[in-house]
Amino acid sequence: MGSSSKNIEQAQECYYHEWMSFQSQRIPELKQLLAQRRSHGDEDNDNKLRELTGKIIGDFKNYAAKRADLAHRCSSNYYAPTWNSPLENALIWMGGCRPSSFFRLVYALCGSQTEIRVTQFLRNIDGYESS
């Protein structure tokens, strides 16, 4: 199991570095397009910005999907990646990205419905009709 976990960590780190390399390629292009937009303000430039923004968002979605896929096999690396420095992990936690935040989100999305269903279920067991 240790070897499998190590392979997952290496894959996650590889995906992270791949995403960061895409970012380092796209950020200068984005800055250039934004500077051109300020000086010229043409519609063609706006279309290029939309296209580049779509690529950047697509890169992040791809990275997130790969991490999510690996998280099914080893979830601890999802919350505190091993390639982050202790400072980066601390900033992630101080910024509010904690495992408990994910649990609260899941509860907020489906937990309230669960309470309603349990109440309805218990009323049906006790012989009360739900109205």
From TrEMBL:
InterPro entries in UniProt: Seed_Dev/Stress_Resp_Reg (IPR051886), TGA_domain (IPR025422)
GO MF: sequence-specific DNA binding
Annotated DOG1 domain residues: 9-131
Entries under Pfam families matching the protein: DOG1
GO biological process: DNA-templated transcription
Recorded superkingdom: Eukaryota
Protein name per Swiss-Prot or TrEMBL: DOG1
Gene (name only): DOG1
